[in-house]
Every structure is written in C-alpha cells, then in structure tokens.
Amino acid sequence: MAKRKITPARREQRKKLLELLQGAGVNDVAGVQELFKEMVNSVLENGQEGELEDELGYSKYDYRNKETDNSRNGYSEKTLQSSLGDIEIAVPRDRKGDFEPQIVKKNQTTLSGDIEEKILSMYAKGMTTSDIECHIRDIYGIEVSDSTISRVTDKIL
Questions:
Q1: In this structure, are residues 129 and 50 in contact, taking their beta carbons and an 8 Å threshold?
Q2: pTM of the model
Q3: 104-133: per-residue pLDDT in tens?
Q4: Torsion angle, CA of 134/136/139/140, rounded to 10 degrees?
Q5: Is 93 exposed, middle or buried (CB count within 10 Å of its CB: 0-12, 13-18, 19+)?
Q6: Cα separation values, 16 from 9, 29, 122, 140, Å
Q7: Which of 56, 81, 90, 131 could form a disulfide with 75 if both were Cys (CB 3.0 to 4.6 A apart)?
Q8: Alpha carbons 65 and 18: distance in angstroms, whole number
Q9: Considering only CA atoms, which of 44, 47, 57 is closest in space to residue 153?
C-alpha cells in the first residue's frame, strides 16, 4: 500500500490544529472530547440566543428597536446527555414564557450523535443559510426562516 501524499494546505491545517490543541492544553483523546463538548455547548447556547432574538425581534441590549412587551428573563440550566457525556447548557428564557426553542426543545434531555456531527459540520464548514436550513429540517423536522438561520449563525460565529 502506497503512502498518501499530504498537500501543503492539509499540512498547514494540521499545524494549526496542533497549535490549537497545545494552546488549550489538550494532550489526549479525553481532552479532545472535552474540547468538543465545550464547542457543542457554545453552538447550542449561541443558537438558542439567536432563536430568542428572532422571537423577540430585537438584539440583546437593543431596547430602541424593542416592539414587544416581552423581554429576556435570564437563563435556566439544562443537562443534555450525549455520546461524549453530559453537556450543561444555559437556556435563555423570556418573561412571558412564550419562547419555544427549536435547537434544543423543552423537555429534551438527549443529543444523538447524529445531531452532534451535524452541529460540528455546520460550524466547521461555513455553510450557507439554505444548507443550514436543510440540516435543521433533517434533524428536527421543522421549518426555520432565513432570518432565524442568519441570527443563529451570526451568534455561533
């Protein structure tokens, strides 16, 4: 079996990845899993922030554009079981209790490995809003507007 040649671009990616892992103090598989859990946590929390922003119609601290009598009301802690172990997330709340998150639904307690992989792929590939919309439709079976996708991806990035 012939040895595969590594392209200069691939070599540069590996170098950056190694620097990232060393900078984070990761030196084993368990460390990589913890780093991945933290990334999934960040994506889920930021995605839900984007959903709430879309629901309320204004950005956090942008009271000038507030056209609703509903507003943010802190966070609730939630533990999700995943293939990597438990992931703690902070779920944003609204005062009226009308907010129905779609990325992690109310009473949802598990993340399948498939969802984790799709979150990672969306985050890593810089996908278009229509691609992400298709992924969310595949994962959750819900329709999401382009504006919601834009707000969620802006929060994630």
A1: no
A2: 0.66
A3: 888 888 876 555 566 666 766 777 666 766
A4: -120
A5: middle
A6: 11, 18, 20, 33
A7: 90
A8: 44
A9: 47
